[in-house]
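User: For documentation purposes, I need each entry recorded in a consistent format: the amino acid sequence on its own, followed directly by the corresponding structure tokens. There are two entries in this batch. Please keep commentary to a minimum and don't merge the entries.

Assistant: Recorded as requested. Entry 1:
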Amino acid sequence: ENGRLTSCAEGTATENAYRHWLDTTTSENPPSAILIGADNADVADLNQRAQADLVAAGRVDPEAGQGRLRAAAHAHIGDLLLARKNNRQLTDENGDFIKNDSRLAVAAIHPDGSVTATREETGTTVRLPADYLAESVELGSAVTARRAQGVTVDKAYAVARQGLGRELLYV
């Protein structure tokens, strides 16, 4: 009724959500947006695809170095990351520690493999050491429905499948 939910042909949900998310993300002055995959495998595939397409669009810069993430992924300037573990020793410029599910945009990559990132929810910066990145951080353009809970964004693009409870889609 309000255009908030759309349906698509069977088997096209992932592609449909991804294309809409990419169009939004690469638009001029894009609103905050999140891509919600149906499961961890979808999320991993969507994140790799998003990184490649954002590199092609000039939004992510692989030439400025890289930080190694979990699951053999790499972060570049412009990538969106997702912290997967609380770390009270890693604090931003306001003194707030990194929490599980924090989303961060990579602003700089340092020779030691650490990155300086901007927290999406506050706009503050934090330096994440290489070992924390490799153990506890992954690409964060796409997340599961459980990880998206509590995230505030302007637009959410979700892949919903049969059996996924509606309460998981509250973003």
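Entry 2:
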Amino acid sequence: KQGIDVAARAAKLLIIPGDTTDLPTVSGYVLDALAEITSYARDQGVEIILLSGNHDLSHMGRPVISHLGIHRLAHVTVSTEPEVLDVSDKLSIVTAPYGTKWPQIERIVEGLGDVRSWDRKLNGRRQYLFVGHDEVQGADFGNGHKASGGYTLDQFKASPFAFFALGHIHR
């Protein structure tokens, strides 16, 4: 609820980069918690963008989120494929749910026009933000654990995005 309270005072948007569940079978506790969170967000006027993470996938490869009915709520957008979400006249979010490869992102960017005109500074013009369910290759999580998959820092540095947010760290 703290995240929703912050979003309600600022952007009216909460982005969850995946792993709303951690098992293909969802417990009653998780269902109740998701219902409470989404209802609270609606009451506060907060839109939610929810990416599908690897733990949100059932054994059949379909998002568990679909089975929960969350995708039918008017204030919740569920992203299960890479896409561009126009949040406002000044903000678009490129989503990369679990399993999205960088060439898919490059194709999306190519379809958005001349990226040299994009402004990487947050100064009031249209911004393109990247939100994904993955990790940066070689990231050090401590205790000798380093990320082996994911995107490279060079890919991010060469991209036109103003901001990046990733979620996929398991602790």
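Summary note for entry 2:
Residues 28-44 form the longest helix (17 residues).
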